[in-house]
Model the fold of this input.
Amino acid sequence: MTVTLTCRFKLELSTAYTNAVNYVLEQNLKDKSTNVKKLHKLYYDTIREKFCLPAQIAINAYRDVSATYKTLWAQFKELKRRKPDSKAVKKFWDKPPKRKSLIVKYTCNRTASFKKINGEWHASLSTLQGRIKWIPMKGWSRHFKYLESCKIGDPILTYDKSSKTFFLLVPVTLEVQEHQPKEIVGVDIGERHIAAVASTRGTRYLIDLPEEFRRRKQHYQRLRSELMSKGTRSAKRKLARISRREKRFTENVLHIIAKKLITSHPGARFVLEDLTQIRANRITYRGEDKEARRQSEQWPFASLQCSPESSCQRPAGQS
Done:
């Protein structure tokens, strides 16, 4: 069985790639094409001339556009199926999508490569000013072992706004041993109880959020309300900081819950609830109760499912 993980390494990046993607996203709004060959004929030369991107990075730019429009078409068809006469359907294609994040997609062994020199790993990346070779990389020691022994995919250069640091995300594919489960554990996600667990060994229990976590989420909500009512630029900056802080807190809480599940059932196979259409299918019994509606949207249940899934797929001892 093969598993693909993403290794994160700390690594100046211009906005040329993002601008090129946004340009093609806007120009392609009329046709809404997802055909890579058609996009190549229409925009490849323009991207090279206007944004001075290297050949392979220019190709990755319109491939990004193709993937974006595929996602938009899927969203549009689903929205049209559920609400065919709504304003959202009529206005769906009014504005072109826009890329805000500062990222660049590279192609392994073409626009990006990795080499170990004197025991330390270095990256070589294509830029607007040519190739930059032997950029020192910092990261987790186990991730460097993955670079030595695993199949390396196409890396992505990203920018972390909070720390003002660039990171290289490198996907690696490795072989893992497929284990025989000792028990089957079913996990049902809920709002009142974050998870209801039942196993083939007869174990049944509920996982509730500690009151401390609920109070912390309410604290963030009060802060957001106060800052949004002010509307000043400094308040908006603080809102952005609080948003990142709350996101980290939420991820940590979900990680704790997932770890509790895995350690309580070692060697088990987890069967997770299908969350497709969870927002649309939810019973709307809350009416005008804003606080009840807000509470129901507090936790990203899909993230809770992904955490134990990825942990179980990793090789033993690599959680």
Notes: The two ends are 17 Å apart (CA to CA).
